[in-house]
Amino acid sequence: MKLNRLIAAIAATAAITAAAQVKPGVEVLRDGGFAPLQGKRVGLITNPTGVDNSLRSTIDILHEAPGVTLAGLYAPEHGVRGDVHAGDHVATTTDPATGVTVHTVYGSKTKPTPEQLKDIDVLVYDIQDIGCRSFTFISTMGKAMEACAELGIPFVVLDRPNPLGGNKVEGCLVEDSCYSFVSQFPIPYVYGLTPGEVARYINEEGLLPGGLRCDLTVVPMEGWSRDMDFRATGMPWVLPSPHIPTPETALYYPASGILGEIGYMNIGVGYTEPFKLFCASWVDADALAARLNDLGLPGLLFRPIHIKPFYSFGKGEHLAGVEMYVTDAAAAPLSLTQFYVMQELAAMYPDHKPFETCDRGRLSMFDKVTGSKNIRRLFGRRYRVDDIAPYWDKDAAAFKEKSSKYYLYK
Fold it and tell me: How many alpha carbons fall within 13 Å on the CB side of residue 13?
């Protein structure tokens, strides 16, 4: 029986690996004999998404790599093994599988300290991102680059796909009053770069404090191209956080996550469709779906839905609204979708205008996530997307052109 289970596991692993069209950076590193890490004490920033195409953790790969000493682990949000809930404290502990110390780089200490880095020669980063600025992992990467630049420690990024592809760019650059851990660098909300390309852009454009630059190496993927979404890679998806269970969810996160910051309605978190819904107790689902579909938004369709959330906003209540479907990701105005929803709701329900009836204590977070106080100011005048679209889109084309020189893939 044990032999049969082992044979089945080997067969399943082989099937996953055979389906993959893309090698992540960790596999390229391994196939190259771990050359950049040979003879070195290595620190690793990772989480459960840091795996090869057989779902083997980068932690374990480096721990067993010949000529490499895994000397430290650094835990972002959710922890290196994914055993910490979103937003919860990540404690300094020991990884039971390897015996390596796990240092926290989330919460009050987002930047590795000299004490945490004193026993390593090189710091490696391997995390699957979702291509949206407010997801905190690229901020973790930037803070680690800053620490390495200050201490003269080389920094290595093991690259992974952008699940939105490499061509979609939306949103304005972060403005001076809105920098935070959810808007750490002046890049658009949807930025169209892989983690390695983001690191190159940050480093070469002098975006670290004081214009510092770290000794950066990116180990690129093999087989990825800019027109690939995550499904096209054939790679296994490991959820980067509990509410991003599938690669499709990465499409919906930028379409609803900004609205989700202000406690105005349920966006599917707490139900079975995170970031895909717009629901509240006072919404006429059929009417809202009809109005949104009548807008003729490219690449988007909406259907009425009724839910009773298991937790989060509206827990246990009957809520109604819409479920959105992205039918053409390249054409869809993803990040503006939530503003179209707010536009229609403000017209349908004047007593439920978003900024007047939301959790007003969360409005500053709305500004930080959008990266500009002007978005809320302009939109709040009439709740019309036409009032913000030019401002929201003003930096996208220039950023795409500027960042293209840091592309690693065509």
Answer: 11
Mean pLDDT confidence for 92-118: 92
User: What tokens were used for 259?
Assistant: 């609205």
How much is the pLDDT for 14?
Answer: 46
Report the pLDDT value the prediction gives residue 373, as an integer from 0 to 100: 98
pLDDT band at residue 12 using 50, 70 and 90 as cut-offs: very low
- What six digits make up the tokens of 219? 């180990």
Distance CA 243, CA 253 (A): 9
Six-digit token pair at 380? 């709040």
The answer to whether residues 334 and 297 touch, using CB atoms and an 8 Å cutoff, is no
Mean pLDDT along residues 228-246: 96
- pLDDT beyond 60 at 94: yes
Amino acid at 397: A
Where would I find the H helices in 169-215?
195-204
Q: Assess contact for 155 and 214: CB atoms under 8 A.
A: yes
How many whole angstroms separate alpha carbon 173 and alpha carbon 392? 9
Examine the pLDDT at 81 and tell me if it is beyond 70. yes
d(CA 353, CA 292): 17
DSSP H helical ranges for 106-136 = 114-117
Helix (H, G, I), strand (E, B) or coil at 269: strand
- The answer on pLDDT for 343 being more than 70 is yes
Residues whose CB is less than 8 angstroms from the CB of residue 303 and which lie 6 or more positions away in sequence, other chains included: 289, 322, 323, 325
Q: What is the pLDDT at residue 18?
A: 57
- Name residue 68's beta-bridge partners: 40
| Four-residue CA torsion sign, 147, 148, 149, 155 | negative
DSSP state of 387: G
Please give the DSSP secondary-structure letter assigned to residue 235.
P
Residue 13 has pLDDT above 90, yes or no: no
Report in angstroms the alpha-carbon separations of 117 from 21, 102, 152. 35, 11, 11
Going by C-beta distance under 8 Å and a sequence separation of 6 or more, which residues neighbour residue 159? 24, 25, 194, 195, 196, 197, 218, 219, 220, 221, 408
Query: Would the pLDDT of 8 be above 90?
Result: no
Pairing of strands 101-104, 68-75: parallel
Q: What are phi and psi of 136, to 5 degrees?
A: -80, -5
